[in-house]
Amino acid sequence: MSDDNPHSGRGSAVKSWLERIAAIFTAEPQDLSDLQAIIAEANARALIDTDTKGMLQGVLAISKMRARDIMVPRSQMATIDIDQPLEEYLPILLENNHSRYPVVNEDKDHIEGILIVKDILQYALKPQTEWQLRDILRPAVIIPESKRVDALLKDFRQQRYHMAIVVDEYGGVSGLITIEDILEQIVGEIEDEHDEIEGSDIRKLGSHVFLVSALTPLDEFNEAFATSFDEDEASTIGGIVLHAFGHMPVKGESISLGGLTFKVNKANNRRLVQLQVIKPKTDTATDE
Predict the structure, then answer these.
(1) Residue 2 lies in a domain
(2) What pairs with residue 116 in β-bridges?
(3) Alpha helices, DSSP H only, in 28-148?
(4) What is the pLDDT of residue 46?
(5) Looking at residue 287, what is its pLDDT?
(6) Which residues form the CBS domain (predicted)?
(7) 121, 219, 266, 283: which has the highest count of C-beta atoms within 10 A?
(8) Rounded CA gap, 226 and 219, in Å?
(9) N- to C-terminal Cα distance for the chain?
């Protein structure tokens, strides 16, 4: 006898999918490959959308990561020296736009604590009050490079801190990691109010200086700057610059290519984010 219910096919598919997930958890698998396959199938059947699939995959991915895998490396850490007066480190705060900074004593291996920028406000509004940077520091949380990222996220939430200093087996500082670094592994890049508005790939700062998103399509960049970078080599200008460096450059590094000077304005440990492009002063091709 045939089944006349038009929804029976979809109902069976959903039941089968749920049964497979239940079976995976009941069996307590030793690896995540089966669960990843189920997530991919659920997306293919439109039971979950692509964004949900990506987040689920991100959650699974961090369970295999260690702090060393996603930390901001030592060379890219923005720090403040404990003996610096406010007028010296204020430009550092304005340039980097972070909410927290490690405070060091002479070098990055000697962390005195963490400065939360908002803690300065009460003193900035009362210039007559005497205070020292040391007085307002929060304790620094120290973790080993081998710390599991999922366990660290749990610590961040339960203990209500947002930054940890990562040290190697000898106790030397190798980097730092924030709760945002972990969340970006799950939900993707988190843009804030200081990031460039999407679509503003090329912004003119001066007659010969431009701010360019590293993700600017190469054909757009070539057209704007009358360059001829090979589109078979990379699809974005960031790819061209990264290939030319031959390593992941840090903020402030520069290189000359195609008659232009490229200076890294913003980067993380995974990719270039923003470039400053400087044209020769004799070149007026895009000075409109």
Answers:
(1) no
(2) 100
(3) 33-44, 50-62, 67-70, 86-96, 121-124
(4) 79
(5) 47
(6) 71-130, 136-196
(7) 266
(8) 10
(9) 77
Side-by-side strand order, sheet with 209-213:
202-204, 209-213, 272-278, 260-267, 254-257
State the Cα–Cα distance between residues 222 and 226, nearest whole angstrom: 5
Task: Output the pTM of the full model.
Answer: 0.56
- What's the confidence (pLDDT) of residue 249? 87
Residue where a domain stops, chosen among 64, 80, 110: 64
Q: What are phi and psi of 226, to 5 degrees?
A: 55, 40
Written as one letter, the residue type at 277 is: V
Where the chain has pLDDT below 70, the residues are 1-32, 124, 127-128, 188-200, 268-270, 282-288
Q: What is the pLDDT of residue 272?
A: 86
Per-residue pLDDT at 181: 86
Rounded to whole angstroms, what are the CA distances from 183 to 90, 131, 178, 226?
28, 35, 9, 39
Give dist(CA 167, CA 67) in Å, integer. Answer: 10
Say if residues 165 and 195 touch (Cβ distance below 8 Å). no
Instruction: Identify residue 54 by its one-letter amino acid code.
Output: G
- Non-local CB neighbours of 145 within 8 Å, separated by 6+ positions: 66, 67, 68, 71, 166, 167, 168, 169, 174
Q: Cα separation of 280 and 261, whole Å?
A: 8
pLDDT at residue 284, as a whole number: 47
Secondary structure element (H or E) that encloses residue 102, with its range: strand 100-105
State which residues form the domain around 210: 202-278
**218 and 139 within one domain:** no
Query: Alpha-carbon Rg of the chain, whole angstroms?
Result: 25
Instruction: Say how many C-beta atoms besides its own lie within 10 A of residue 264's C-beta.
Output: 23
Task: Burial-class residue 122 by CB neighbours within 10 Å (0-12, 13-18, 19+).
Answer: exposed
Q: Is 285 inside any structural domain? A: no
H or E element in which residue 8 lies:
helix 8-27
